[in-house]
Design brief:
The protein is α+β, with helices and mostly antiparallel strands. The protein folds into two domains: 152 residues, no CATH class; 45 residues, no CATH class. It contains six helices and nine strands. The strands form two sheets. It has a six-stranded mixed beta sheet with strand order 4-5-2-1-7-8. A three-stranded antiparallel beta sheet has the order 3-6-9, with no helix packed on it. A hairpin with a 2-residue loop joins strand 7 and strand 8. Helix 4 runs antiparallel to helix 5. The longest helix is centred in the middle third of the chain and has 24 residues. This is DUF2796 domain-containing protein. It comes from Sessilibacter corallicola. Pfam families: ZrgA. Keywords: Signal.
């Protein structure tokens, strides 16, 4: 019962995000979902990969691989991102990344393997089109239709167990850590109250 409220909220937020935000996939924009109930705090961050590492394709050189590795290390230290009450003790981190070897810190994600397989088949279809219609025509189609399918999002959620019965505020340091983030759509349910706010570099804290 302790987890039901927060889990249900984040499930709703994930569905809402997929329906309204994912298709747009706006670079510079991220989403933050916060739930606090029964002294349990959950914060979920959703962002295009480009906001965090500057690209969305698979790493193509050592520098880009280092960017992915640095991101994974940074994600494991939520104090880099958020200021939560001192009474809150980190309980778990759940991380979903489109990059090889980074999903959920080593947990298997067969559904994403299937998605990768579909993308591979789609790539082979385009390769055949290049042979049939020519390189230039294929490149235009790749950018116009297939390009939108290459968008990659990173999702990370944190769970804390807290001693305080009430949560009054959370500090958000994401703009300082990731200059690629220009705006954050935040929504929350805290102790039965709900609200939303657009965070910017000049107004980055959440007051409940």
């Amino acid at each position: 019962m302790k987890r039901f409220f927060a889990t249900a909220f984040l499930t709703f937020c994930a569905g809402s995000y997929a329906a309204t935000q994912h298709e747009a996939h706006t670079h510079g924009l991220a989403e933050l979902n916060v739930a606090y109930d029964a002294q349990q705090l959950i914060i979920e961050l959703r962002s295009p990969a480009a906001n965090l590492i500057g690209f969305e394709h698979e790493p193509q050189n050592i520098d880009q691989q280092v960017e992915v590795e640095n991101l994974i290390r940074s994600i494991q230290a939520p104090e880099n991102y958020f200021v939560v009450p001192p009474s809150c003790a980190l309980n778990s981190i759940d991380f979903s990344s489109p990059y090889t070897g980074a999903d959920d810190f080593g947990r298997d994600r067969p559904e994403e393997e299937g998605a990768h397989h579909d993308e591979h088949e789609h790539h082979e279809e385009h390769h055949e089109e290049r042979e049939e219609h020519g390189h230039h025509e294929h490149e235009e189609e790749h950018e116009g239709e297939h390009g939108s399918e290459n968008h990659k999002d990173i999702v990370v959620s944190y769970e804390w167990d807290c001693a305080d019965k009430n949560l009054s505020a959370i500090g958000v340091n994401l703009f300082r850590v990731y200059p690629g983030i220009e705006k954050i759509d935040a929504q929350w349910i805290v102790s039965g109250k709900q609200g939303a706010k657009v965070l910017t570099k000049s107004s980055s804290n959440l007051q409940f």
